[in-house]
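#structure-requests
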Amino acid sequence: MLVVLGIVAALALALGFFIAATWAPERSVAELQARWAPPPSIFLDVDGMQVHLRDEGPRDDPSPIVLLHGGGSSLHSWEGWAKVLKAQRRVIRFDAAGHGLTGPSPDGRYGGDNDVHLLIDILDKLGIAHCVLGGNSMGGAVAWRTALAHPSRVDKLILVDAGGYPFRSASTPLGIQLMRIPGATWLLQNTLPRFLVAQGLRKVFADPDKVTPEMVDRAVDLTQRAGNRRALIERFRQRRPTNSDGIRELRLPTLIVWGGRDGLIPPENAERFHRDIGGSTLAMFDDLGHAPNEEDPERTVVPVKHFLGLD
């Protein structure tokens, strides 16, 4: 009995040390804005949120390029593509609800329909009738769902390691695994081990050495944005299976960009998108991971420029 009590006491002490060492209180937008939202960032009042958004390039573009980031990421993931594309096209990107500096949805509801609704409201707010819509992972799923629900608003699709079909991950970040453990949510909401954040980013890239200290700093800071951790947990809890049947109904020019070493959504799903969307184009990068747009923006933007006639 004494041995058992000793083990329990040791575990409790270790947990206490862990909590003390990784305790991470929430931070306000005002604290984070100077580093992560300098110009051209703006905050747009939409659906009860101050949406963090960047709108760059020529304003007379009849079909702006709108880029949607993946789960747990932010508009910064498109920096490389935006730098190239904004020279000729209007490029818009924003932090989704519960992400980046936008913060949580006022009603606490998350999911594909909510993300599509927010996107359309942002386009309306900006006076954009139709656009080229691109997205990575979660953002890719929002992109094709928007094209199905609002076909007149989407001229072309760019799907980057997009969600949509069922899949089994070969490599899952530890943070996602912890969300599946009952009782772990309190820890996830109040602590933020830097090593856990770094491990998650390295799982996204095929070459973990490409994860820079600034990327880890950004992910840590934006995760601490007030309400974001609770929102990410809620988004995970509210997940529902995606009905992929409608993908075969898409009838618009589509470019599929994929990392051949994606450990989260396997390359087989890229082939399936390619088969199901008639006339689509597939650009596979065999040496890249789940976020090829961020891991190697210089190479992966090349087929995008060709797709958009910007060569």
